[in-house]
């Protein structure tokens, strides 16, 4: 079971306005996703595994994480979101070739996870 933990943080930029959370998505697996815990409540977090359209090695699927409603002010964050990913047969993942795999054990910026506002890539690199 892969267990990515995520915090979305709004970096202050001009103009100083709130960013709607609803269309924000995080994209980095063929599996099912489950929200185990979220500071804002799992009911406010949407998550869907989707087929990737890119051609980067190890980028066959991604988890799209969204938010039911709300907004993030500049500098604000969602707080921790704990998602669990598993295959239908519960077998182990081979993460060695995954596009967005990281060996970090703490919260760090990760350039290979894309953050989209609507259809515009605003952070990271999409596969």
Would you tell me the structural class of the helices and strands? mainly beta
Strand order of the largest sheet: 1-8-4
Profile the largest sheet: 3 strands, antiparallel
Determine Rg (CA atoms, Å). 14 Å
Task: Give the number of helices.
Answer: 0
**How much helix, percentage-wise, in residues?**
under 10%
Shape: globular
Mean pLDDT metric: 77
Instruction: Work out the strand percent.
Output: 35-45%
* Terminal Cα span: 22 Å
H/E series, N to C? EEEEEEEEEE
Number of strands: 10
Low-confidence stretches: 11-23
Describe it for me?
This protein is an all-beta fold and 127 residues long. The chain contains no helices and 10 strands. The chain has strands spanning 5-6, 19-20, 24-27, 32-38, 45-51, 61-67, 71-72, 81-86, 114-117, 120-123. The strands form 4 sheets. The protein has a 3-stranded antiparallel β-sheet, with no helix packed on it. The radius of gyration is 14 Å and the shape is globular. It starts with a strand and ends with a strand. Mean pLDDT is 77; it is low at 11-23.
Short account of what is shown:
This protein is an all-beta fold and 127 residues long. It has no helices and ten strands. 0% of the residues lie in helices and 35% in strands.
């Amino acid at each position: 079971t892969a267990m990515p933990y995520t915090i979305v943080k709004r970096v202050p930029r001009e103009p100083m306005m709130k960013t709607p959370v609803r269309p924000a998505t995080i994209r980095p697996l063929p599996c099912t996703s489950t929200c185990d815990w979220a500071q804002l409540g799992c009911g406010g977090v949407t998550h869907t595994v989707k087929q990737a359209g890119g051609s980067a090695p190890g980028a066959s699927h991604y988890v799209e994480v969204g938010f039911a409603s709300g907004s993030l002010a500049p500098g604000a964050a969602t707080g921790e979101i704990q998602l669990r990913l598993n295959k239908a047969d519960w077998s182990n993942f081979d993460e060695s070739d995954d596009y967005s795999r990281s060996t970090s054990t703490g919260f760090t910026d990760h350039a290979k996870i894309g953050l989209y506002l609507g259809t515009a890539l605003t952070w990271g690199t999409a596969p």
